[in-house]
Amino acid sequence: MVVSFIGALKLFKVLGSSFLLVGGVLYLTAGQSIIDIPRMLTSNLSLLTLLAMLPWMNSVVKSGRFDCYLNELMNVNVADLGKLYTRSSITTLTLAAFLNLSAVSISQDVLKRNLGSLSKSIRNSFINRTTLRGYSLALVWSPLEMLVAVSIFTTGANYVALLPWLLFIAVITFLVDSLSCHLIFKKYSYDNNQVNKSHDVNMNKLMKKVLHLIVSLILFLALVILFGNLLNLDFILTVTMLIFPFAFIWALLMRRGRSFWSIGWKTWKMKMNKMQNFVVLFITLSFFATTLNGTTFLKVIQQPVLFFADFPLMIFFLIQLLFIFLSLFGIHPIATIGILSGIIAPLLQLFNPISLAIVLITSSIATLTVGTYGLLVTLTALNTEQSPYRITFDNLLFAFIFSGIGSLVAYLLL
């Protein structure tokens, strides 16, 4: 952290210093042992390790020219940004179901290149919305998403019973978002001279490549599940360990080994040399979040929720607001679930477990688009060279609508 602090951007130096200062005060007031400090600093290291390995998955996708086919898929028969928005959301959603965070980087790279002629404010606003929202809608129903797994574990709900409702919420939210943003962006014409027109695109070849990508990524997820269960490893660690060998073997089977090494080595060096911001952010954030969990401040948060226990819809909305509010200050949604765990048990005796699971899942996933210090927002801020607060502002209304739809569906299922 000390070494990375020197090369970090000013914004991350300020954030890191703030987290250390507040975390230090909380540490002193809570009377925690000095022996616990290393554990407090290292709870987010698995995320940093995953970030260090992601460039290799991006590289095999680029060496197989899948990003080029993604570019074609986004732009066929697109005349304005309104139509491009829906196409980009679908593409990001589809890829995110398999590539996870890598899909966001790939989609953002393609959009940055194709929207280079537009003003920076319009381009960034478009990217902030379509990529982050598409990504979140892919995770809300995924059994491999950590937030989904934690919510199901906490409530004891059955995933098979949850899945139809989660898909329903994802579809409704997608339609609402696509319609509203289509109306916002349709006034901006889109003319990319580098994109082939529809009659020049070989649709058979394009669909074969898309199928190839889907099959390969389904295989990757199957291996993640297999090795995770056999070795009893958590999801993040399993993905981190499998990324490089899977990407390397995939490149060899495509006969793209040389381009994979060429692209991968350059990309990995470039990304690793920009890890200072992430190192400072996640280590200091780990210290802050861990010390916060050891204070009586948690009881202050729990009291308003318990006060409205006789009003289900009100308590669902309070949980939703709590997730979003805490995410703005760097509290990870899993930590928020931990905060709420003390009141979940009595609520399970009153409410349908499926309803509570839906509220926890939609509220936690919605924070991914607005968590100012979260991984997704921070990565987007670095990719697009803008303030993370701008990204939060662009997606705040969506987060309320997304989790609000989840709360309404949960209420109807009581």
Automatic annotation (TrEMBL):
Keywords: Membrane, Transmembrane, Transmembrane helix. The chain crosses the membrane at residues 6-28, 40-57, 90-111, 132-153, 165-185, 206-229, 235-254, 275-294, 314-344, 356-376, 396-413. It comes from the Bacteria. This is Uncharacterized protein. It comes from Halalkalibacter alkalisediminis.
